[in-house]
Amino acid sequence: MAKKTKTVKSIKVNADLCNGCRACEMACSAFHSEPKYSSNNPARSRISVIRRPLEDIYVPVYAGEYTPAECLGRNSYILDGKEYKECEFCRASCPSRGDFKEPDSGLPLKCDMCESIPALDEPLCVKWCMVDALTYEEREVEVDEDEEQPKVTEMELGLEHLVDKFGLHKVAESVARLAKKEE
Amino acid sequence: MRYAETGYNLEIDLTRGSYDRVESDVVDTELYLGGLGTNAKIMWDRVPPETEPFSEDNLLIFSAGLLCGTPATGCNRTIITTLSPQTELMCFSMMGGFLAPEIKYAGYDKIILSGKSKDLVYIWINNDKVEIRDASHLKGKGAIETSKIICEELNEPKAQVAAIGAAGENRVYFASIEQGRSSASRGGIGAVMGDKGVKAIVVRGTKDINLAEPDRYFDLCYEVMDYIRFRNENPIPNVMPILAGLGSPQEMKVHDEKWHTENFMWGNSRVRRRDFWNEEIAKDWEETMNSMQRRLISCYNCPMTCGATIQPPGMDTYMMKCFSKLTYTMAAFSDLEFGLGIAQAATEHGVDGFSAPQVMAFALELLEEGILKPEDFPGMPEDNEGRFYYLLDMIVHRKGIGNILANGTYWAAKEIGNGAEAYAHNNIKKIEQLPLKLGMMNPVYFLMYSTGEKMNITQIEGQFPQAPFATMEEREAFVKDWIQVPDDKFKEYLLKWDFRGEFSNPYYPTIDMCCEIVDWMEMMHYIDDALGMCAGLSSFPLKPPYHIHNYPKFIEAGSGIPMDEEKLTKAVKRYRTLVRANNIRRGMRRADEKPPENHWKKRFPEYEAELLSAYYKFKGWNDDGIPTEESLRDLGLGYVADEFLAKGVLKAGADAPQESASE
């Protein structure tokens, strides 16, 4: 099978260095506002700092896949004497919590590594993390040519959520109706 | 659309149990900026001069600064304004933490509490939804404990909570409002919150804050961030460690406490221990700090890590800030282990870390001197540390002698009588000051202590070095990249300043120079208090990233209000004068404006009077410290002039300096 190289972008999270200031949330929401940087609102951020200072728990988590279903089990972890509750490491935008959803519409959010044209040197959360809890790395990996998944755009992600909520038929009908109005 | 600010205040009438979202006037933002500035305007308009601090007519205003909630690094302060039970003047205490941005994201610039609730309540503000909820189950609970319980019962881990402990509920005159990482402590604002029957304010906000010129604003932010990195890598040489860097004095990081322990006073601001610090203590204290400290932490959107989570053995974790690290230790002649431990209890009870230890040391001094009797302290333990825990408990619950001590040293001494007044010796305008007793009168500090209306020296000093540099090389190196000065003449003042001789204290800097230096330093604090910026990145440290040259750009790009240095300087002067006007109409006069008698050993009464008169004149105030009609009208404060003239505070045409001071 034909091989090709692909750039994997990764953000290394060093929770030990996190000071809990949430600049990352602010910066993320500003980058993704429309027009860009025009507003900020940490509730719209695709990174969320799980922050429980009295228990010394600081976990910056990135929004990952959207899922329409809740988990069946709810696990907890004890690491280094600290108890992390269910979901604290989870990236999903799911029905069991409010994180990683647009506060107005409830549509799911997902980290896109601030991909944009022109490209940034690093995702904006990393740029704003002056205590270096977040650092950015790129590496090249070889992948099978046809294994690469198509990228899911933000709009598709939102549509998927709407289809889960209302059914494909109703969403398609609404889109058709809107299209007619536009004409 | 409003930019940087939301344009709305949340008015809560606790007597009626009602609330209203009220649009504010954008013209007021232009005139008074926000935060302290607009708070002062509201206090002037709505709180008549005869109002008692503990009355329904007093307001308690929680204000975010104008730029809180925007991306500006370190802009996270809540400015709380009310009438102080301790000074009986308008007071404004600030806290960092996370509340101010959350208030903004909830869609408000200020939360204004009026009236009084009959029962203990807490206020739950979730964007547009506001609930006044029963708090009887939280009565007597610690401030941090309260925050935890509320977040759990609401299932809102991201809500921000400002709460009072037992001290606030019992209207202790130096009760604070605690917000986890931060507290607003000076002036007894926690007592006013308790008097209003409010245990906590809880806020969750998920709305946008807009910027007028986003790209320009972000570029300004990046310049500030680069400068912070530069300053972190280049501490200022030839000054003591806590003045070399940015942020609040880095008390959680700096272990060398030689300077504080040997220069600040111990006990009831009495004893200087010049040879206290040694290797053994240094090692012991560092071990104590390291064994209790869990992590260095920051306020919202700030990299400075000025605070720390501290877990004393057998006690709950709390978050410590700054100099409360040493205030209890030094008041009790004890060690750091004691200091970090009792600060946990004091934080939960919610008391000011400057006043509380001094009040306790004052009580023990009165006992030692026989002015208070052993029977005034029933059941008090024998050991020194135990006595401080005992006194803290008596004070915050107003039990026995604690009921008198809870009013602070000034009022307690008055009530105790029998010569007790002489022991309440470290107050300015009735409020306990940093425990400092020095040699030679310092003219810059004389003016700051005398005329400060924020009641704490750290909230007015900052931009000009505290002492001259020893050599010309050091001076030249310092002024070389001193971009923060409003005018290059300040560099000249510093270059000439010596330890001894013609160009040294008390006659140099000259009176005119002192006026300019103090005015500049105070102006920077007042800008911070309107914008919500942390003093640790602006007015307090030497060579900060925010200064008079970039602030107008931040305001303009953030709020869309056209701004330049001249306009900003005038706006600051306007609301600074309005703060003074609020206090003048409550009776504050020149006679109230003086440092403690014993602050310096070597005093110059005539020269000091000359200094004060000159500074008043420089500020546009008459010789009694009252803003003149001319300066009021020039600042657009004609409504203040009209009231002062109508009530005889000012006499028409009497702006010419009087022949003699009223002292």
Give your account of this protein's structure:
The complex is a heterodimer of chains A (183) and B (663). Chain A is α+β, with helices and mostly antiparallel strands and 183 residues long. Chain A has 2 domains: 3-148, no CATH class; 149-183. Chain A has 4 helices and 7 strands. Chain A has helices at residues 23-31, 124-128, 154-166, 168-182, and strands at residues 3-13, 39-40, 47-52, 57-62, 77-79, 82-84, 134-144. In chain A, the strands form 3 sheets. In chain A, strands 1-7 form a two-stranded antiparallel ribbon. Chain A has a two-stranded antiparallel ribbon with strand order 3-4. In chain A, strands 5-6 form a two-stranded antiparallel ribbon. Chain A starts with a strand and ends with a helix. Chain B is α+β, with helices and mostly antiparallel strands. Chain B folds into 3 domains: 8-204, Aldehyde ferredoxin oxidoreductase, N-terminal domain (Aldehyde Ferredoxin Oxidoreductase,  A, domain 1); 219-421, Aldehyde Ferredoxin Oxidoreductase Protein, subunit A, domain 2 (Orthogonal Bundle), CATH 1.10.569; 438-646, Aldehyde Ferredoxin Oxidoreductase Protein, subunit A, domain 3 (Orthogonal Bundle), CATH 1.10.599. Chain B is 39% helix and 13% strand. The longest helix of chain B has 21 residues, at 511-531. Chain B is globular, with a radius of gyration of 24 Å. Residues 657-663 of chain B have low confidence and may be disordered. Classes of the chains: A alpha+beta (183), B alpha+beta (663). Chain A binds chain B through residues 19-23, 26-27, 30, 33, 35-44, 52-56, 58, 103, 128, 130-131, and chain B through 69-71, 73, 98, 105, 144, 148, 157, 180-181, 205-211, 214-215, 217-218, 225, 228-229, 294-303, 305, 309, 316-319.
